[in-house]
Each structure stands twice: as structure tokens, then as C-alpha cells.
Design a protein that fits this description.
There is one protein chain. The radius of gyration is 55 Å and the shape is elongated. The longest helix has about 55 residues. With about 170 residues, the chain is mainly α. It contains four helices and two strands, in the order αααββα.
């Protein structure tokens, strides 16, 4: 059987047309088959299996979310308690200052002097009772090393130290 070739003009760049090689008797079967079989098959969704790692990640994220929310709730609760305690402290400080002011108003200087003289036996000193003590020696300083130095020697060492500091910065 001899094959029949026919010329089909083409606008694309196909080098060979396979339709020319078909037998003419096979063409109606092919056309029927194409008509019977749907060209576009309906798209079906694939059944995805959820992996254990995915479930573990979702569970871990949910746990972290719950922990974060509960810590924020706890923090808010502590802040409310702290502000209530601050208000209570300020009220107590105000009450304390009021009590001190009332005590100061109740104490009279004359009554206090009378109580000291009568009950405690204290005597108020006058100008004649003041005595001044005069030391016969110079003031002395005991350094941690145990040596005694006079005030003049101490001032000399302080001035020498100051001179060294000034010389360093020149």
C-alpha cells in the first residue's frame, strides 16, 4: 500500500507534519476516539496527608501563644497590684505627716523645759557654765602605718602631692 502525501502549507517552524503519514482509513477512528474521550480532564484535588512534624510545629506555636498571653495577663495583674500599693503608700505617708504635725502642735517648749527640770532633774546651762578646754600640744594625726605626724607635716605632704599633680598636667 502506497502512502499518500499531501502538501499542507505551514506558518510555523515544524519540520515534519505527522498527519500526512496517517492512513486515511484511520482518520475517522481517531476523530471518533477524540470525540469520545474528553480533552480536558476534570481536576481533582490531591489528598494531602498532614505530617507529624507539621502538627508538632502547630502545637508548639499554640503552646507558645498561650504562654505569652498568660505572661502578659500576669504582668498586667502585677502592675495593677503595684499601682494599688503605691496609692496605699502615698495615703499612709500623708497620714504619717499629719500625725507628726499634730505631735509637734501638742508639744510646747515651756512644758518640755518644765518636765526636764522637775521630772528629769536637768538644769539649763547659762553663759557662766560654759568652759573652754585649751590643749597644750599641737594637733596630731595617726596614720594607718602607726607613725604620728603633726598638722604642719600633713599640710606639707598634701601641698607636695598637689605640686606633683599640677606638674603632671603641664
Amino acid at each position: 500500500m502506497e502512502k499518500e502525501y499531501r502538501y499542507v502549507p505551514r506558518q510555523d517552524n515544524l519540520a515534519y507534519d505527522f498527519r500526512r503519514a496517517e492512513r486515511p482509513e484511520e482518520r475517522p477512528e481517531r476523530e471518533e476516539r477524540l470525540l469520545r474521550e474528553p480533552k480536558i480532564q476534570p481536576r481533582t484535588r490531591k489528598q494531602h496527608r498532614i505530617s507529624a512534624a507539621y502538627l508538632l510545629c502547630v502545637f508548639a506555636a499554640a503552646v507558645l501563644l498561650v504562654i505569652t498571653v498568660s505572661s502578659y495577663a500576669r504582668l498586667t495583674e502585677l502592675n495593677v497590684k503595684a499601682s494599688a500599693l503605691k496609692k496605699e503608700i502615698s495615703a499612709l505617708e500623708l497620714e504619717h505627716s499629719g500625725i507628726l504635725a499634730s505631735q509637734d502642735r501638742k508639744i510646747n517648749a515651756a512644758e518640755l523645759a518644765e518636765y526636764a527640770e522637775t521630772k528629769l532633774g536637768m538644769v539649763q546651762s547659762g553663759a557662766a557654765n560654759i568652759e573652754y578646754i585649751v590643749l597644750g600640744t599641737e594637733d596630731e594625726i595617726v596614720v594607718a602605718g602607726g607613725s604620728k605626724t603633726t598638722a604642719a607635716e600633713t599640710m606639707d605632704s598634701i601641698l607636695a602631692f598637689a605640686d606633683h599633680i599640677i606638674e603632671y598636667f603641664r
